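User: Modeling request: complex.
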Amino acid sequence: MSTTSNHSANNRIGIIRTFHRFTVGQRWEHLLLMLSVIVLLLTGLPQKYRLATWSHNLLSTPERLQFVQQVHRIAAIVLTLVVIYHLANAFYLLARRNLPGDMLPTWKDIKDAWQMIKYLSFFNSKKPLFGKYNFEQKFTYWFMFFAIGIMVITGFIIWFPEFFTRLLPGGIIPATKLAHSTEAIVIGIFVFIWHVYHVHIERLNLSIFTGWLNENDMRTYHELEYHHLTGESSENPDRGESQG
Amino acid sequence: MVNHSHMRSMAAVLVSVVLISVAALLTATPARAGETTDYCLSCHGNPDLQMVLPSGESLPLYISAEALAVSVHNQVGIECNACHTEIQTYPHPDLDYQNKRELARALYQSCQKCHSDNYDKALDSMHAQVALAGNLDAPICTDCHGAHDVQDPDEPRAHVSTICGQCHTTIYEEYHASVHGDALIEQSNPDVPVCTDCHGVHNIQDPRTELFRVQSPDLCAGCHADPELMAKYNLPSNVYELYELSWHGVDVSVYKARWPTIWHDSAVCTDCHGIHNIRKTDDADSLVNEQNLLQTCQKCHPDASPNWTGAWTGHHEVSLQRTPFIFYTQAFYASFAPFVLGLSLIYVILQIIRSTVERARRGLR
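Assistant: Request completed. Predicted assembly structure:
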């Protein structure tokens, strides 16, 4: 390796090599996505559980209820703009044949998942090697992709029911209301157990905010990508959790 | 004040009263039941007896013995002077009332002597407030119950609604044509509500208030959430329960619990079904009949188009036949949510176990 490792015992000056991971646009997208989803959950839950005492206490006047609904709608517009930007950007890159395919699910993800399950149940001693995004991260992305799609579509339908029933059968209104309110809970629980574990508890991964990942994390969690970027051989005996 | 012809008959009565009194004193027999009444009727039994009030109205002073005989008071031995307390004997004290209404409003206060509970309740009523505001035609006890011919007001039950209909004529007509009114008036059905079941009896309140509106679904639920009663008419008894879960119902529940005195527009039962004109849903004149439903929705949702009524689940539980969209959505989430979240949870738990074991091994090394 060309740089000095920061955990080298006899050298106090450590240089941490960092790897670019997310563009400024992607970091902004995630920040706005995160903030709008938090606001939407916080303003949506008291509306979903309006008959509960805690909700009564929060929405203690009709004006407060209206305020919370307005905030919910503003956050919904922010989220919608993020979604539109994300899709438009993807189509733009696709049109220029410049769309990075890292996030697309591949056959390798299925194999990785199977290997990972074997590793987790102590059949394998080593984790599979991952590229830029491992299957857990792809699962997060695609789960949120469809979940937010459902939330945005159903949200607008119950925001403008008169308009949508001009085009669609009336029966979709109670169905979308149920979907919106249930999907929100599913998203909340999913982010809490899946995403929070992977980016805070398993390891603190702030790359989506900083834009970069350090060499150590890169080698530990995205070894294939690490070798792809450094041009080194992927044969590394020192990998996975067993690496210090 | 009094006609001359009646002066003469009055004088005749006076003479006979004196004679009777003297006779009574001489014989000194104990008071006989109905004695006072008989004494009064000796004059007031004359159909021609009347006087003219300063307003020019003539006040009939005739009391029909037949009407008196059916009065519940007479049947238990309550006689004239129980209510006409100012009159002890003949000659009577002068009447100091300008017109019949003033007289009625003064005399009905005798009801308080025995019926103080209902009398006080009536003072809290919408009717009393209207009177206080200057409308002296607002009903007093005797307007509904009668004066000399007081009878059980709900015998027969339809009588209650007829009494209210004396003044509330338009509403009575609407009610008469409704499913409830028809059953009551035409079929003497004892199960349907009469006016007082919803509006209260003596302390009748203004039904146009925020409070009345927000509590009105409970009035309907009184019967329509009663499984036994509804089974009798082959009606579902879960309509109120399902309403409470609906968009409208949740809103109304919150207002009822928190802001009962703040006006809200979310639909209550009567907004869609009508108030006094409630009809069977399959009646062509029903506001919620398929032909009229869109128009009813448009009262609050003016931009609603024909598809809109399909959004209404009609107080029915979710079913494949009636509400396929919500049925499939429910089925999807009932399987998808526990599946995905369950797998995610298991996966993360396995990861926690594996990494804990890994760390422990490293510690041992």
